[in-house]
Structures are given as structure tokens and as C-alpha cells.
Write a structure and sequence with these properties.
alpha+beta, Serine Threonine Protein Phosphatase 5, Tetratricopeptide repeat, Heat Shock Protein 90, 7% strand
């Protein structure tokens, strides 16, 4: 029943618009019927992006008028505009059908220009359907016709489309080859708009390949051209793309600056949708960096703007992002509330889309030979129709209310259960973390005490014994030398043990210098070649984290010296986005963590967890290499 009502509403809307077309046709300021028909098809193309239903009505009306005066060019052009409109809506089969009907008129009439445009649109439709062989065939036909007409700019546009197709196929080498051909033509023709479009496509290919610096360069070139053309919409889109590249480069500040710049341009144009998109990007960046409060402030403003322009999809996006923000803050009640609102809007959007599809399907256009009319049945008994509409609206309302009640009860139960589980998990985790912190802190405290005792106590006592022996000249010179040598060795061992228990360099000159000192001394014992690469600002780490990283490295080094036959070792410490990576590799046989017998690996894992990090082991056979990796979050 609800589908019948949707169809009925769609037909009423279509009939109401159609009644105004006669008066619109009369107002067109052209001297001939053919010129008026051509004007209507141009208007149809202009409406295709924002009001596709009206665009189809205009094209159908133009076709009917062209049919009345037997004007093949008008009929073929109108059918082509319908095909373009369907393609923009995503109805690719319909687009291909209408394109074929247009060709049946354009080919016998030798309308080469219209044929070339139709083949280009057919190529795009085939590409979106994944029919790449047919897409390439249509593109090549379009290029041949445009060359016959000596239209190099149009040839460049089709070559660019072929490049896009190969980009979708991830054949980036061919994509770049076609982009190069297209760019060469548009540079020669000085077609700035197409140049900007091609630069954008270059940037996307490089981004897909992970060549972000090259991608950024081409997006910036596109932006400069759009700026030269004073094309605010193009400028805004290019800056948005630049912001996305900065995001993938890990430069969140530069990304946010780019999105704000795009927002300013959209604001100048009064493009509320564009403004909402920019601020959504910024809010998602804030969520990802943990600044959920800033994200919530932006998203609440987005909600207000989306309601003002009645954009349900933007309302839906705002609620979903707010759900994530409140989850980050641990406010699961508000997170659930926003998710329920998101679900309700999401269902509404899906329902509206389904109604639009049904209404569109009922706008039947006949495309065979001379007959292509809009089939509209006479609407009679309007009072009965209103009763049917009201009754169905009431049924739909009851169904929606029932669904919302069921969803509310379900999510309420899920929320209650999740809260209890999260609370228990959080309590256990906190207790475990406190226990680990207490154990490690107590261990380090004891190490500090023993280190001080070794250095200040035993070390000084041994030095005093040596000095006393020499001063008192006790016994023979040979005995003095022997005892003095033993005292020196004992003092050196005490100092070395003191250094291992609590490295002096760590406090005095920092983590990097302490690690360098330890690796040089440790690997020097077995003449192990090693390379230490450092690319990180250690001021971002607190003292506990520095000590934990040092202990992990110390344990790894001890294991390597004891159990591995390695001759080379490589240590890297660097930052990637918001993570610190500490990678330690050696070319020995390594060790199997699953067969550990001591506490060394457990201590390494415990210290990694204490920093909210992860410890992993990986063995490679070709070439043989054993890698230990520590990843911890940093500001």
C-alpha cells in the first residue's frame, strides 16, 4: 500500500510541473521553433545536476516538440540530455538505453557532433558499470568523431576520461599516459578548466600509489588554476583535497588549516553544504586526535545548519560523528542517544530514496522510434486519493513508532549491559595497571638504592683499600700489585653493575645518549657491528617512559649477547603520526617467545603495556632477520 501512495504522489508532482511547460515554452526568446527546442534541451542539462526530475520533464517536452515538427537534431539532443541526467543519478542502464535511442536518430541524420557527445556519455556509463571494454570502445568512437570535427579540446576531455577508467583499474601507468596526452592538448588549447581537472586526476593517482608529496604538488597546481579562473567552487574542492593529503601525511594542523580555508570560500559562495562538509572533516580530525569536545562543538553547529537547509544526509552524518565523540569521552548515554537519532534519520533517508526511485520509475519515457511520451494516467476521485494517502501515512507512522520503541528497548538493554561490562573491564584494567606500576616502580627504586650503594659504598671502599695498601707499603711489591689489581677490577665491576642498575647517562644526558653508550659498550664486547638511527624529539616522553624504553633495549641487548650468534644489529627509533616506533633487529637466529623460560620477555611486554604500547616479534627467513618492535602512542 505504501508503494502505491509513493507512486501516486510522484505522478501528481510530475503532472503539476508538466502543466507549466507550455507557458515556459512561450516565454523563450527565440525566433524559430528549432531554436526554442534547442534552448529547452540546454535548460534540461543545466537542471540535471540539481533537479533531475525537472530536467527529464524539460527534455521530454523538447523531444515532443521536435517530433511534432520532424526535427531529428532536436529529438536526438533531447534523448542525449535524458541519458546524461540518468547517468548523473546513477541509473546507468537507463542512461545506456536512452543513449542508444539517441544514436538511432543521430547516425542516419549524420549528426556527428551529437554522436560524439553520446559516445562519451556511453563510455562513462559503461565505466561505472565495470564494463571497461565497452567503455573504451565508446570512448574511442567519441575521439574519432571529435577529431573529424577538429575539436581538440573535446578529444582531450575524452582522453582524460579514459585515464580515469585505467585509474579505477589500478593500472596507474596507463592512466598517467592518457593524462599526459590530455594535458598536452589542453595546454596547447589553453583550456584552463580542463587543465585543473587533469591535475586533480594526476594527484589522485599519486595518492593511490602512496606518493603523497607528488599528490600534494598536483592538487596545489589545480588550486592555482582555479584561483586564476576565479572559480570559487573549484578552489574549495582543491583545498579540500589538499587537506586530505595533509591528513594522510600526519600533519593534522595543516589539514585543519586547509579545511578552514575551504570553509571560508564556501561561506563566501553561500554554499551551506560545502561549509558543512568542511567542518565535518575538521570534527573528524578532532575526534581522531582525541579532542572530542572541540568536535562536539563543531558538530552541534553542523546539525543546526543541516536542519536549516533540510539536508537529512548531513543530519545523519552529524549524529553518527557525535556518537563517536561521546564514546571517546566515555559518555555512553549520550553516545547511545545520538546513535538512536542517527538510526531514525538513516531509516528516513533510505525510505525517501526508495520513494524517489519508485516515482522516477513511474515517470515512463517511451524511446522507440517516434513514440516517446510521458505516460500519465488521469487522476480521478481526488477525495479518495486523499483518504488513501492519509490512511497510509497513519499506518507508516505506527510502523515507525513501533520500530523506534523496539530499537529504544534494544539499545537500552545493550547500553545497560555494555556499561556494566565496561565498568568491570575498566576496574580490572586499572587494578592491573596499578599493580604493574607498583612492581616496576619498586624494582626501579631498589635498583637505584643498590646502584647508589655499589657506587658510594663498595666502590669507594675498594678504592680506599687500594690506597691504604700503597700508603702502608704492606707486604712485597708483588703482593701489593696483585691486591691493587684485584681492587681495581672489583671497583670497575661495581661501577659497571651500578651503571646497569641505574644508568647515569639516562638522567644526565638523556635517552638517546644513554642508548648510544649502552649499545657501544655492549656490542663492543663481541665485536657486533651495529647501526643506531634516531629521529624523534625525546622531550615528548616523560621520565618513566624513557626508563621503560631503556630497560626494553637493555633486555633485548642482553638476550642478543647471551643467546644469539648475530654479527650485525640495527636499531631505529622514529615517530609516525602519533606513534613512536622502536625497532630492534639482528641477523641471528633470534629466539622463540612461545618457548621463553625466564622473565625477560615478560618484563619487556609489561613495560610496553605500561606505556599503553605494544611489543611484537617477527622472524624473516630471506634474508634471515629477527625483529622486535615496540609501538607506543605519543603526543
Amino acid at each position: 500500500m505504501k508503494y502505491y501512495v509513493a507512486i501516486l504522489l510522484g505522478l501528481i508532482l510530475t503532472q503539476s510541473q508538466a502543466q507549466n511547460l507550455d507557458s515556459l515554452y512561450q516565454t523563450i526568446n527565440e525566433t524559430t521553433e528549432k531554436a526554442k527546442i534547442q534552448k529547452l534541451t540546454d535548460m534540461s542539462f543545466d537542471e540535471a545536476f540539481n533537479n533531475p526530475s525537472y530536467a527529464l520533464l524539460l527534455a521530454q517536452y523538447a523531444y515532443d516538440k521536435a517530433d511534432q515538427i520532424e526535427f531529428p537534431e532536436g529529438k536526438a539532443s533531447a534523448l542525449h540530455k535524458m541519458a546524461v541526467t540518468f547517468r548523473l543519478q546513477g541509473y546507468y542502464d537507463k542512461a545506456l538505453t536512452y543513449g542508444d535511442s539517441a544514436l538511432q536518430i543521430a547516425i542516419p541524420a549524420d549528426l556527428i557532433s551529437i554522436q560524439a557527445a553520446i559516445y562519451s556519455n556511453q563510455g562513462v556509463s559503461h565505466r561505472y558499470k565495470g564494463e571497461y571494454d565497452q567503455a573504451l570502445e565508446s570512448y574511442q568512437k567519441s575521439i574519432e568523431l571529435h577529431r573529424e570535427l577538429d575539436e581538440p579540446e573535446q578529444v582531450g576531455t575524452v582522453l582524460n576520461n579514459i585515464g580515469v577508467m585505467f585509474m579505477y583499474l589500478e593500472d596507474y601507468e596507463k592512466a598517467i599516459s592518457y593524462y599526459d596526452q590530455a594535458l598536452e592538448i589542453q595546454l596547447e588549447e589553453n583550456n584552463k578548466k580542463e587543465q585543473a581537472n587533469i591535475y586533480n586526476n594526476f594527484a589522485i593517482v599519486y595518492a593511490n600509489q602512496g606518493l603523497l608529496d607528488s599528490s600534494l604538488t598536483y592538487f596545489e597546481r589545480s588550486y592555482e588554476i582555479e584561483k586564476e579562473l576565479d572559480n570559487l567552487k573549484g578552489m574549495s574542492e582543491s583545498i579540500n583535497n589538499i587537506g586530505a593529503v595533509y591528513y594522510y601525511l600526519g600533519d593534522f594542523n595543516a589539514a585543519i588549516d586547509a579545511f578552514y580555508k575551504s570553509y571560508a570560500i564556501d561561506s563566501t559562495m553561500g554554499d551551506v553544504r560545502g561549509m558543512i562538509t568542511c567542518m565535518t572533516n575538521i570534527a573528524e580530525l578532532h575526534n581522531e586526535s582525541g579532542n572530542a569536545k572541540a568536535a562536539i562543538s563543531i558538530l552541534e553547529e553542523n546539525l543546526q545548519k543541516a536542519r536549516e537547509i533540510d539536508s537529512k544526509t548531513d543530519v545523519e552524518t552529524a549524529y553518527l560523528n557525535l556518537t563517536q565523540s561521546y564514546q571517546i569521552l566515555g559518555d555512553f548515554e549520550k553516545a547511545l542517544d545520538n546513535y538512536i537519532k542517527y538510526a531514525a534519520v538513516h531509516d528516513t533517508v533510505l525510505g525517501q530514496q526508495q520513494m524517489d526511485v519508485i516515482a522516477e520509475m513511474e515517470t515512463k519515457y517511451q524511446t522507440k522510434e517516434k513514440e516517446q511520451e510521458l505516460v500519465i494516467k488521469d487522476l480521478e476521485l481526488k477525495e479518495q486519493e486523499e483518504e488513501i494517502r492519509a490512511r497510509n501515512q497513519m499506518v507508516i507512522g505506527l510502523i515507525v513508532l513501533t520500530i523506534l520503541l523496539v530499537l529504544g528497548a534494544y539499545f537500552g538493554y545493550r547500553s545497560y549491559k555494555s556499561k556494566n561490562e565496561l565498568k568491570m573491564e575498566r576496574t580490572l584494567r586499572l587494578e592491573e595497571e596499578k599493580r604493574l606500576d607498583a612492581v616496576i616502580d619498586a624494582t626501579e627504586s631498589e635498583r637505584t638504592r643498590i646502584s647508589k650503594e655499589l657506587h658510594d659504598g663498595i666502590g669507594q671502599q675498594l678504592t680506599s683499600i687500594k690506597l691504604g695498601l700503597v700508603k702502608e707499603n704492606a707486604g712485597s711489591q708483588e703482593n701489593i700489585n696483585t691486591i691493587s689489581s684485584i681492587a681495581d677490577e672489583a671497583a670497575d665491576s661495581a661501577r659497571s653493575l651500578s651503571h646497569q642498575m641505574m644508568p647515569k647517562a639516562l638522567k644526565e644526558v638523556g635517552l638517546q645518549a644513554a642508548l648510544v653508550d649502552m649499545f657501544n659498550k655492549s656490542f663492543g664486547v663481541k665485536d657486533i657491528q651495529h647501526d643506531f638511527t634516531w629521529n624523534f624529539d625525546e622531550s615528548k616522553l616523560d621520565e618513566k617512559s624513557k626508563l621503560d624504553l631503556y630497560r626494553i633495549a637493555q633486555e633485548w641487548t642482553n638476550n642478543l649477547l647471551k643467546y644469539s650468534s648475530a654479527s650485525q644489529a640495527e636499531i631505529q627509533l622514529y615517530a609516525v603520526k602519533s606513534q613512536l616506533i622502536f625497532m630492534l633487529s639482528e641477523n641471528g637466529e633470534g629466539f622463540d617467545p612461545s618457548k621463553r623460560t625466564g622473565h625477560g620477555i615478560t618484563n619487556m611486554e609489561t613495560r610496553a603495556r605500561r606505556m599503553n604500547g605494544q611489543l611484537s616479534f617477527e622472524k624473516s627467513n630471506s634474508p634471515q632477520e629477527f625483529i622486535t618492535t615496540v609501538k607506543i602512542p605519543v603526543a
